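User: Please fill in residues for this 455-position structure.
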């Protein structure tokens, strides 16, 4: 009976068009569809992301509607984009809802990215209900929440910040929008905006798992109805319960899959340092050079993702000079790489998706955060989850080749590497258990779906 009714319960999921937001929303959609909801993920015409292969393999549908924006969305025009989105998207959504209702599949509920909190009013305006989906961890969200509630103010005073249910945080551990006020005012607005109506929705979904952030999740759950549902990694890498869920099925760039795989296959277990700074970070030329020589000096094999626009920043002849030790690619199939037995550590910017992927796949990290939430994620990687080390920058804000070499060696084979590896195994197990049958995230998803079905 529940299955039959579930088939009729149709929900929309609405991400914002950035890889780090679409991937988790897509995975959440697949999980909800596996629990008998009918799910349509809504993308927008300006999104550069192409969703591959979903038609044949996925349990969810995709609809693309207009957001009225002609340009590519970048950090520089993000504010302009969100304003345009806010005006045009609800109009396009109205037409989509009408079309779906006409086709006999009316929508009942909307899950939307937490960066567009006004979607709740839009949904309610259409007579529906909605829930935000937070794609960042609560370690980070809670800091914004406290800032929004006046517990933290500009300029942040003292060298250590004490917040409820959080470890003591240095200024460098805070998200950069708070430790460096004025650096990206529109981004700060956008992250704080997530809390503008936080007490209104009946559910707040988030991409983390209870065991990873128990203290802060329990604290925040006493303020608002948060439900951890992560990690949103394809099922193949965790519980293997969803068929055909081997991949996100969507990518900003074309991964050099065969090249990476062939190269990794020829290497010994845990002998390779995988290096990637995600889809957005643009490092300075001097910093790129330090990483390059740090990798060379460490003398481990390395697989380094250098996106095409960044390539010119590599030292001259670097790939040729280091071809016996290293492979530089423009984009990798990151999950496959992290799951490969030859990978021994991940030099990462600590973007939340990369961090969750490394935690879920049991890969030790060398954290080299750049901005936004990465600084806080790096703090937790080093001090709370104890799955890696964080490099420190010098007075010129450069992480030197020596520092990179030392941290890589420490994580790969140093005194504390055994402890780190034990911890990565622990988190890997807990991540899988959380999403597997009866785990904390699975229970939250079930409860959410049950309430939607009965509501
Ligand atoms: N990624 C990938 N190939 C690469 C580098 C990254 O597929 O060569 C994926 C990675 O698996 C992750 C996402 O891109 O899912 C990056 O997200 P994250 O939140 O770590 O960083 P952002 O790109 O948002 O800075």
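Assistant: Residues filled in for all 455 positions:
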């Amino acid at each position: 009976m529940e299955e039959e009714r579930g088939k009729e319960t149709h929900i929309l999921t609405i991400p914002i068009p950035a890889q780090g937001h679409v991937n988790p929303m897509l995975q959440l959609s697949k999980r909800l569809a596996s629990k008998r909801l009918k799910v349509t993920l809504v993308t927008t015409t300006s999104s550069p992301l192409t969703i591959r292969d979903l038609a044949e393999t996925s349990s969810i549908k995709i609809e693309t509607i207009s957001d009225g924006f002609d340009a590519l969305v970048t950090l520089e025009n993000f504010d302009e984009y969100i304003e345009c989105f806010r005006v045009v998207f609800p109009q396009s959504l109205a037409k989509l809802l009408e079309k779906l209702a006409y086709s006999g599949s009316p929508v009942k509920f909307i899950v939307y990215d937490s960066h567009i909190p006004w979607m709740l009013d839009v949904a309610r305006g259409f007579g529906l209900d909605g829930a935000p989906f937070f794609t960042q961890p609560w370690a980070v969200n809670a800091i914004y929440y406290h800032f929004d509630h006046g517990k933290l103010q500009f300029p942040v005073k003292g060298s250590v910040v004490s917040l409820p249910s959080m470890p003591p945080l240095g200024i460098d551990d805070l998200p950069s929008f708070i430790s460096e006020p004025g650096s990206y005012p529109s981004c700060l607005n956008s992250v704080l905006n997530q809390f503008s109506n936080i007490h209104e929705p009946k559910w707040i979904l988030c991409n983390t798992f209870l065991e990873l952030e128990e203290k802060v999740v329990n604290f925040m759950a006493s303020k608002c109805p948060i439900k951890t549902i992560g990690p949103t990694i394809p099922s193949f890498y965790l519980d293997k319960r969803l068929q055909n869920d081997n991949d996100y099925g969507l990518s900003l760039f074309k991964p050099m899959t065969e090249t990476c795989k062939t190269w990794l296959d020829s290497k010994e277990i845990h002998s390779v340092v995988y290096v990637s700074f995600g889809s957005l970070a643009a490092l300075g030329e001097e910093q790129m050079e330090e990483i390059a020589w740090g990798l060379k000096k460490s003398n481990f094999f390395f697989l380094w993702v250098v996106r095409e626009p960044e390539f010119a920043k590599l030292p001259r002849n670097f790939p040729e000079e280091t071809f016996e030790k290293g492979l530089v690619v423009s984009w990798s199939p990151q999950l496959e790489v992290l799951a490969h037995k030859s990978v021994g550590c991940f030099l990462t910017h600590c973007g939340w998706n990369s961090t969750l992927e490394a935690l879920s796949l049991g890969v030790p990290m060398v954290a080299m955060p750049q901005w936004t939430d990465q600084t806080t994620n790096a703090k937790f990687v080093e001090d709370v989850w104890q799955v890696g080390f964080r490099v420190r920058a010098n007075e010129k804000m450069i992480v030197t080749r020596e520092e990179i070499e030392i941290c890589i060696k420490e994580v790969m084979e140093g005194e504390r590497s055994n402890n780190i590896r034990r911890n990565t195994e622990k988190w890997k197990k807990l991540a899988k258990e959380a999403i597997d049958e009866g785990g904390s995230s699975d229970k939250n998803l079930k409860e959410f779906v049950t309430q939607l079905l009965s509501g």
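For context: The chain has two domains: 2-241+437-454, 255-430.
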